[in-house]
Amino acid sequence: MSETYDFLFKFLVIGSAGTGKSCLLHQFIETKFKQDSNHTIGVEFGSRVVNVGGKTVKLQIWDTAGQERFRSVTRSYYRGAAGALLVYDITSRETYNALTNWLTDTRTLASPNIVIILCGNKKDLDADREVTFLEASRFAQENDLMFLETSALTGENVEEAFLKTARTILNKIESGELDPERMGSGIQYGDASLRQQRQHRGSTAQTKQQCNC
Ligand SMILES: Nc1nc2c(ncn2[C@@H]2O[C@H](COP(=O)(O)OP(=O)(O)OP(=O)(O)O)[C@@H](O)[C@H]2O)c(=O)[nH]1
Ligand SMILES: [Mg+2]
């Protein structure tokens, strides 16, 4: 069966090793927790078609390795991403402290228009929390990021994180702030919207023929 969608958005999942990036992607795509998740080698890939604001959007998601030794490989994926989930682990201050480095990389390598959501993952492990919700939300505000605490284990806020990012991108397309035709936007028109545009062009041509002007 061929899929029809209005837009395709390219997404990245980034952040330190062991924060739960692969589990978040798995939960989003399979709606279950990934048992025995191993460190990602380089980059893994997943996709899912979602409905946002009346549009069908295919999310093409690149789940990158957090380990330092893969940094040169993963850096090559930043270009041309429309959205990113920047993940830390609420039970590990080290992964939270590393966020500034991840942001520097993103701001240097990705499109200036990239929409980023900060995800404080492992929300289910509240008893082992090392990073408060308040300090992370302040950090997000200061750095112009959206913010959610998530749990790839229970599924809490996982779909929301992806959908919120997609909705923001869609709003920016509709307001004209984002141009899907721009090189490296990380956005492509799908069959459905191309057909609509063609139909629209067809009807404009017809109107012109009829009015003799
Ligand atoms: N309790 C709990 N554990 C989680 C959650 N998400 C991931 N984990 C655990 O955290 C560990 C690392 O998860 P991964 O998804 O492999 O981490 P990653 O960020 O992809 O790591 P790299 O691929 O090395 O960058 C695994 O043991 C998971 O079971 C969560 O939301 N809650
Ligand atoms: Mg991984």
TrEMBL record:
- Give the function comment from the record: The small GTPases Rab are key regulators of intracellular membrane trafficking, from the formation of transport vesicles to their fusion with membranes. Rabs cycle between an inactive GDP-bound form and an active GTP-bound form that is able to recruit to membranes different sets of downstream effectors directly responsible for vesicle formation, movement, tethering and fusion.
Family, similarity comment: Belongs to the small GTPase superfamily. Rab family.
Q: Which GO terms describe its molecular function?
A: G protein activity; GTP binding; metal ion binding
Q: Which organism is it from?
A: Esox lucius (Northern pike)
Protein name per the record: Ras-related protein Rab-4
In terms of Gene3D superfamilies, this protein maps to: P-loop containing nucleotide triphosphate hydrolases
Q: What is its main location?
A: membrane
The GO annotation for biological process reads:
protein transport; Rab protein signal transduction
Q: Which PROSITE patterns match?
A: RAB, RAS, RHO
Annotated Pfam families: Ras (PF00071)
Q: Where is this region: Disordered?
A: 194-213
Q: Which GO terms describe its cellular component?
A: early endosome membrane; plasma membrane
* Catalytic activities: GTP + H2O = GDP + phosphate + H(+)
- State the CDD domains in the record: Rab4
Stated membrane topology is: Lipid-anchor
Q: Which PANTHER family match?
A: DRAB11-RELATED (PTHR47979)
- Keywords assigned: Endosome, GTP-binding, Hydrolase, Lipoprotein, Magnesium, Membrane, Metal-binding, Methylation, Nucleotide-binding, Prenylation, Protein transport, Transport
Q: Where in the cell is it found?
A: Cell membrane; Early endosome membrane
Q: Which cofactor does it need?
A: Mg(2+)
Q: Where is the composition biased (Polar residues)?
A: 202-213
